[in-house]
Prior knowledge:
Elements: H1 13-24, E1 32-36, H2 42-57, E2 63-66, E3 98-102, H3 115-119, E4 122-127, E5 138-141, H4 148-158, H5 165-178, H6 189-199, H7 205-213, H8 218-229, E6 232-234, E7 243-248, H9 250-256, H10 266-271, E8 278-286, E9 289-296, H11 302-308, E10 312-313, E11 317-323, H12 326-336, H13 344-347
Parallel strand pairs: 1-2, 1-3, 3-4, 4-5, 7-8
Antiparallel strand pairs: 6-7, 8-9, 9-11, 10-11
Amino acid sequence: MVRAPRIDAGPTEAEWAAAVAAVRDLPDAGRVLLICHVNPDGDALGSMLGFALGLRALGVRELQATFPGPPEVPEPFRGLPGLDLVVPAERAYPDPDLVICFDAASESRLGDLFDRLGRAEHALVLDHHASNTRFGTVNLVDPFAAATSVVAEQLLTRLGGALDASVAECFYVALATDTGSFRFDATTPAVHEMAARLLATGIRPGEISRRIFDTRPYGAVRLHADVLTRTRFEPESAAGLGLVWTYATLDDLARYGQRPYVLEPLIDSIRCTAEADVSCLVKQTGEAEWAVSLRSKGGVDVSRVAIALGGGGHRLAAGFTGRGSATDVVDAVRAQLPSALLGIEDQG
């Protein structure tokens, strides 16, 4: 049986202290490079930009934020504060003094930017994925945190930073997206307490939610309709717990003139299938390459599936890059499901 690597607790006091020292010991005019994962989502961008703005308020002036791949921020996040700090990957500092990574469970999620970690005096990794491979010199990994922004806010507080509306908006977007608008199991009392601190700065949650969750082009609406007609339900998969899946191609995107980010919400449209524990969305990214999103309602640890196939994630939400045809990718997922079943003790 494939088992995901587990981290039993969050960061130790020694790890927090090392991270604080790495920031405070920056030389005069020290260069800080903040990196989040390829195809950034709300948590990756929100955590990175919120922390960058917090560092700038603390007096750090030589700052860049970046991510691998095309320098395109998904439309829902183009109103985030701090986007002026984002540079294309090819313009990122070649030899920064400090690198801080956000929401990346493994070095592969950083693409060609991973080489910056070896050139910096310190490389901090801020993350909340249980599958994190701890690839930094200092790793602040809290698998119990609902979002990476939880870790980022804690580090900013330890550095003496304050929440203003710009920082708070970034962290709120990160928290809201990774909790599914506070609907997922990771939504704890501590999550609502953090949300309250962020809202106290005066940010407008209704306006943010409309922008992030409830706005999409008409072409995307039509594209979603097409992709959903392909949905397949397999009641016998996952030892009878059920699998529901669909796929989207590059031709679909071209037909409706849409960018890849519009496909991300589709996983929620199929995961609501009452009869299926596992949902799978397969999105084409190249000639025979697919970005795969996996979700579970609790009967299957989809992070085990993703790790076995070269990816990672959480027990109930994970992903990986698949190759071949869409059916090849789903066949690979289906084959891994029996080894990822959760017992009662795991679910508790």
